[in-house]
Write a structure and sequence with these properties.
The protein is mainly alpha-helical. About 65% of the residues lie in helices and about 0% in strands. The longest helix has 28 residues.
Length: about 180
């Protein structure tokens, strides 16, 4: 009778130490950070909280790029993924949903008798941002960052992130179809 050998586990090469993947992640995080720096002056003139947001985001992305010079810990990869995914989701929301905490497109306020505001009504969609070239450059860089960080992540984190991204996509599609995002 012949003996059957137990299957051996094939070990995949460790991507965590791959300098090329870290370079891609760091480079794309740097591109996203510089894009955010580029739009800070424009937002300073429009709405100070947005400018402060872009400063904080830029610093975070610069720190991430700096930390990726060496093999990062699982915590750094996970935080980088969560932060970058959060930025992409927030970006999509600001381009597709009339978010109530954003200022309306009408920045000029004319005085009104016995009232507050400028007398110009806020129409649905007035709080949605327009899509521009810097937006698309930054979005592409952030998507590359997510992909590279997933490659650096542990299998558990990678599975969780991909499942989470799928769930977010399905949820946004359902919300779009039933109305709140439509």
């Amino acid at each position: 009778m012949s003996e059957v050998a137990a299957p051996t586990r094939v070990r995949a090469p460790r991507v965590e130490s791959d300098a090329a993947v870290r370079a891609v992640a760091a480079g794309s995080a740097l591109v996203a950070a510089l894009t955010h720096v580029w739009v800070i002056p424009e937002h300073l003139t429009e709405w100070l909280p947005a400018a402060v947001f872009f400063v904080v985001v830029s610093v975070g992305q610069l720190v991430l790029a700096w930390l990726l010079r060496r093999p990062p810990s699982a915590a750094i990869v996970t935080l980088g993924l969560l932060g970058t995914i959060g930025l992409v989701v927030f970006y999509v929301m600001t381009r597709t949903v009339d978010l109530p905490f954003l200022p309306a497109a009408h920045a000029e306020h004319l005085p009104t008798a016995w009232g507050i505001g400028n007398g110009i009504p806020i129409f649905p969609g007035d709080r949605m941002e327009e899509v521009g070239v810097p937006d698309l450059v930054c979005l592409a860089a952030e998507l590359v960052t997510i992909g590279a960080l997933c490659a650096l992540a542990t299998p558990v984190v990678r599975r969780t992130v991909t499942s989470g991204l799928f769930a977010i996509g399905v949820a946004m599609l359902v919300l779009r179809l039933v109305g709140p995002l439509g």
